[in-house]
Amino acid sequence: MVEFSTVTRAKSKARIAVIGPSGAGKSLSSLYLGYGIAGDWGKVALIDTEHERGRFYADRTDLKTGSFLYAPLTPPYSPARYIEYAQSAAEAVGEDGVIIVDSFSHAWDNEGGVLDIKSQIAQRQGKNDYTAWDEAGKYQNKLVNALLSVPCHTIVTMRTKMAYAMELNDKGKNVPVKIGLAPVQRDNTEYEFDICFQINRDHIAQPSKDTTFLDGWAGVITPELGRQLKEFLDQGEDPARCSECGKTIMSDGRRTVQQIIDGSMKNYGKQLCMKCVLKRVKAAKSNEAESVSE
pTM (2 decimals)? Predict the structure, then answer.
């Protein structure tokens, strides 16, 4: 008989996917998250499949980046090589460190990836494109499980492509219809992660899946966000919430969470998020304008 006990939140590792089109800022956003979580650039390791473009982000005073650990991953992009690199990176950064896989899409549709493996299996006698998936899927599952089980924090990036679905048109014919951007990976892979950030070309991120405290948050990813996630994962405690709207108080990129709280307590006697602070400022200006007009 299976025994159940009362559940409690426990210290855990970050498992994050950063998803978006080319130019959205997936790599830099992941580095900021990694630095915020680790608190030390030397405990961030980047596995780079993007023709060594990750080197461009090292020691940039304009981007406020430092010297992180780095290894380029070249073809073949096989699951076995991804696992080898991830395990080596985890050993290099230690349990409090962060590994970044940039990008995880190459393990799916590039040379030596799972789709390549599936095609090779399908060419065997007695196999076809359909039956090959049973074996190829095991490679995919082993890869995902290996990434999620390393003893440190993990961030992966995934490219996006336009997704289509077949729908009946007004003439009764099935035609392809655009349904939005989808990650270049196996269907539903993003749901294996605890947090999935969708980033657009304006560098604005929004969680499409979240098991933490982000509830409706959207904005530019900064190291401060990484620090907040680390505190949540380490302490198992809820972050500070606004006393008016009830939402999590987040950094606005210029002020830390504590600075926002201190400022709102000083000016309004309440713990407020920046959105509610700005509402109060706007209301005060409006009342002042009405008084002057009278």
Answer: 0.79
